[in-house]
Structures are given as C-alpha cells and as structure tokens.
Specification:
- There is one protein chain.
- By secondary structure, this protein is an alpha+beta fold.
- 53% of the residues lie in helices and 15% in strands.
- The chain has one domain (3-25, 41-150).
- It is built from 4 helices and 4 strands.
- Mean pLDDT is 91; it is low at 155-159.
Length: 159
C-alpha cells in the first residue's frame, strides 16, 4: 500500500473512531438531536447488521466479508493507475472498512448516527466510515469509466 493511500486510510479511520467516541460521550443509545426538523438529525444507534441492517446479527459473517473485501481492495490498488483521485478513493474505502470492522470486532455492532429524511424517506442511519466507503466507491467507478482501472494504460484518452 503506498504512503498516500495509507495517510488517507488512517485519517479516515481516526475521524471515524473519534466521531463515534464523541457520539457515545454526548448521546445515550437511541437518543436523537434534531438539527434540521424533518431533514437531518444526529441519532445514535447500534447497527447489528450491514447496510440497511441486512444480515442483522450475522456479525461473524460480516467480519469475514469485510476482511475479504480488504484483501480484494488491496489487490485492486495495484491494478488501477496511481493518481491523486485513486489514492484518495482507496484510502477512503480502506479507512471506512477498517473503521466499521473495528466496531464489529470490539463491540459486535457498528455505531451509527447520521440520520437523513429526504422527501419523506428516512434513509438508513450511517457514520463517517460509511461515507468514506461510498465516496471511495464512487471515485473508483469514475476511474473505471475514465479507463484508469489498468495500470500503465490510458483508455480514457483513446480516440
């Protein structure tokens, strides 16, 4: 793993873990602070599953899947062209995966707290690690679209 990816991953992990500790410090489990009524609140919950609480109470399975995902991501790091955007993308994904993996390993759940309602749909509550994973995946999808998914090849500029 190159140094730039490692710096982004560690930064993402630290911000994630610090935010989770702060939430636990200032809110009780299931307590909610409404920031913008009917749109955004800080709502501390423990998620015993994955996204949208799928695989609820299958923590061992989710831990195994997370470790496998890290191995796959590590392999892809060396296939993609090395550039600033791709380094950030891989760092965000690794930091996010490790942040949630730490929660699952230590506690048996993930600490989530960002809660949005948009057009009367209450989105699943999420955390900084989740943001890192989603943003990182979107950046990598863009890299694939640009043809940057093969090191040494520049498909994006072919005519």
């Amino acid at each position: 793993m190159n140094r730039k990816i490692l710096i982004v991953a560690i930064s993402t992990l630290l911000i994630d873990q610090i935010s989770k500790v702060m939430i636990e410090t200032f809110l009780k489990l299931n307590e909610e602070w409404i920031i913008i009524k009917n749109f955004f609140s800080i709502h501390y919950i423990n998620n015993y599953g994955a996204a949208w609480s799928i695989l609820n109470n299958k923590i061992s399975f989710i831990i195994i899947i997370s470790i496998l995902a890290l191995i796959i991501i590590y392999r892809f790091m060396y296939l993609f062209q090395e550039n600033k955007r791709n380094n950030i993308a891989f760092g965000l994904i690794v930091g996010g995966l490790v942040g949630n993996l730490i929660d699952r390993w230590l506690f048996g759940y993930v600490r989530d707290f960002f809660d949005f309602q948009i057009l009367k749909y209450d989105y699943p509550i999420f955390n900084i690690a989740d943001i890192g994973i989603v943003v990182g995946v979107v950046l990598l999808l863009y890299a694939v679209w640009k043809g940057e998914d093969h090191r040494g090849k520049d498909h994006g500029n072919e005519k």
